[in-house]
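ok so dumb question maybe but i'm new to this and my supervisor (M.) told me to 'just get the structure for Lipoprotein' and walked off. so i did the thing. is this what she meant?? sequence i used:
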Amino acid sequence: MMRTSQMWFAAVSIVVAASLTAACDAPAGAGDSKGFARESVESTFVFEGQRGSMSQTWRSIGPDGTERLHGETRIMLASRAERQVIEDVTLDARGRIVRAEITTTSSAANEPTVSLRLAPSEGLARITSGTSEASFRVPTDAPWVYTGLAAEIPATPIAAWVAKRGAETAPWLRVISASQARSFLTPLDQVVVRTESGATVVLGRDAADTDEVFVRHLRFRSGESLTRASGPALVL
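this is what came out, is it supposed to look like this??
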């Protein structure tokens, strides 16, 4: 199982690396002698679980502070069903969502693919489940965070990081629950609690511990957990 997962991550790494490189080589730097100074900082974080669950996040931080995140998470549930979550999220320099697309698939029969697309500039969230699609308005009165994409889908490293970054910019957060097709405003301390090493993020019944680098550990309501196995070290 581990070998298969590692091959899966390795194959996707090539695609994502090419995508991030293309983003960094945007026309803005072409033919500009200052292009060499406008390089993005890229990093990869790998998480491992107790039952064979795995997650990997690729992050690129541009010279303007824009943060691009791509994550692929596979969760092995006690029922032996497998859930996969794929995320593409862009944060602005403040740490707020510019756009986000989250897709989940399941190995269980008769469970449709579910996708959530967030567009704060439009104040709109779109949900696709199988062949059906719906949208709902979301106020832009606070940074957006997301949770509850579908039944039995736990939080991911990116979802936790988005909440942590958003909490750095405002005293309130706008939590989007895709499974309920609604959002609600909540004080940031109901989602993000500061700690000596970073912050603890609570998304539904899942929790994550973060440091100044990224997410360190996730604890799911199912009893499974994910721990950061590799990635850039925290320099104190």
